[in-house]
Amino acid sequence: MTITLERSADSLAPIALPTISRMVGVGTASTGTSITQPELLELLAIDDPKVRSVFLNSAIDRRRLTLPEPDAAGLRAPEPQGELLAKHKRLAIEMGSQALQACLKKAGASLSDLRHLCCVTSTGFLTPGLSALLIRELGIDPHCSRSDIVGMGCNAGLNALNVVAGWSAAHPGELGVVLCTEACSAAYALDGTMRTAVVNSLFGDGAAALALISDGPGETRPGPRIIKFASFLITDAVDAMRYDWDSDLNRFSFFLDPQIPYVVGANAETVIDRLLTGTGLRRSDIGHWLVHSGGKKVIDAVVVNLGLSRHDVRHTVQVLRDYGNVSSGSFLFSYERLVEEGVTSPGDYGVLMTMGPGSTIETALVQW
């Protein structure tokens, strides 16, 4: 695809591109109990000072979680893998339904308008996939095409956006939706180790949906158009973030290498430079940055390495504060806040950026 850019004396002219997808509505949902970090430490009876410091220095005020019920002694026992998978299914359908319908309402559409549904999740495994379960649950037209992206982790929302943007461009005027549903409560271990503490201090439950539609002949819809994607797989850090079987716990368990924020930060410039190559744009031309709320150290590393301001990542920081890391849907929680802020202007450029297992950095360039 050839991209050309014309500049007037005082503004950036729109990039001329073929028919392309637009983001026309966003909606989010969360379920469970809203819990502060100190409250969670008490609920889990965590006394270790080092573990407590991980929770209390996370830049997270509260998260939504669905924890196991306490036993007669007031303790919360770890749930077996089977119960966690059942929890994942229940919460994914519940949150996903709410986020999808909120998104369609913002887009001025209904369930009957939906033509493609792409569901993203990494906190459990379902066959048939979440897309099929939601089509049945909500009475969506069974002819609706669908796709499921499973197990790609926190970066996967942009992988899904790439898929649905391509579908949308091939079906002008038809509505597609990316739905990220992450029941992180269904991926929790309760074992008192520092490995577990790093994970349990960070993730929360949430779902986010984004509606996409391409302009038909002679049409120009409101909403930012998706211009370009760029990806980078950091092959030397394939094992730095992983969700795999723990024989000691007899269940799946998530692992985060303490060095991952610095690995992501050190490679952020590489993928952003690739994203902007051929567009005629500089980083200073980007008016809006929507970065995955991966954690305080991740956000700080991206800010430092890309030369961003704290204002640039205000939505990212706010989402982390209010929800924790809601995995693949985090950047859409930030996008929803940007939309509600009402500060974008026609011609503005934005960058969406997510990070996750692989280790992977995904990016997209959009223009209002």
Explain this structure to me?
The protein is built from ten helices and 13 strands. With 368 residues, the protein is an alpha/beta fold. The strands form four sheets. It has a five-stranded mixed sheet, with helices on both faces. It has a four-stranded mixed sheet with strand order 8-13-12-11, sandwiched between helices. The radius of gyration is 20 Å and the shape is globular. The model is unreliable at 1-9 (pLDDT under 50).
Summarize the structure.
By secondary structure, this protein is an alpha/beta fold. It has helices at about 35-45, 50-55, 80-105, 130-140, 155-170, 195-200, 260-275, 295-305, 315-325, 330-340, and strands at about 20-30, 35, 60-65, 115-120, 145-150, 175-180, 205-215, 225-235, 240-245, 250-255, 285-290, 350-355, 360-365. Helix 2 runs parallel beside helix 6 and helix 3 packs across helix 4 (about 130-140).
